[in-house]
Amino acid sequence: MPQPNETTVTPLSLTPLNRVLSPPLGLIPPNTPPSLYASSVSHFLSIPWCACLIQTPNTIPFIPQCFNPQSPAHDQLVGSTLSGPRGLQHMLCFFHTEDEAHLQDHERPIMHVSSLFALGQGLSGYEGVLHGGMMMTMVDEAMGVLHEINMALGKTGEVFGTASVTAGLDIKFLKPGPINQTVLVNAWVDGVEGRKTRIKCEVRDGNGVELARCSSTWVSVRPRM
């Protein structure tokens, strides 16, 4: 029995929360804010270049888990601390299906996901320039979304059956990131080896200029016995 001056450490729980929100897919987690999906879609549809991406045939939008926290104890960095009018105003992800059977075929994962980030004034480092730490946060979240959507869709494979965490990340900053604008992060699976997933991504502004590129390694966490 622990003595009064001893600390009992509770193991971390990395159980997937399945908080992906996508009415087109019938994914509506409990306690989701009623206007979360509609407001994000409406915002990005008001931006012509974003609307072109979202309205491309066979495109399915969704709100990622990080922007739809389960509780005040989960996903607070992006979903609470950074979100707001001066911070991350909206986030919307989307992917394209290859054909009508793609969603139902559990052996064909989603290999490419794009994420739109609406960036507010409060995310600057230097005046008018997006903070580099925010750029790294965006690419980390955008790459993690690949695991989330495949888990939500019930795709098979060891890396999609449990939660995955970032094991390594290498980023190259190519141009200053903007604020008070929207940026696009394209992420794709570069390879899978056992419990490891190699994921790459690129960050582009509304004119298609590449702002950063990143490669990473993710490891699926074995369930606790």
Automatic annotation (TrEMBL):
All residue ranges annotated as the Thioesterase domain in the record: 128-211
Gene3D superfamilies: Hotdog Thioesterase
Pfam families reported for this sequence: 4HBT
InterPro entries: HotDog_dom_sf (IPR029069), PTE-AB_protein (IPR052061), Thioestr_dom (IPR006683)
Domain of life: Eukaryota
Coiled-coil region list: none
Signal peptide: none
PANTHER family in alphabetical order: THIOESTERASE DOMAIN-CONTAINING PROTEIN, UPF0644 PROTEIN PB2B4.06
Protein name according to UniProt: Thioesterase domain-containing protein
Organism of origin: Trichoderma lentiforme
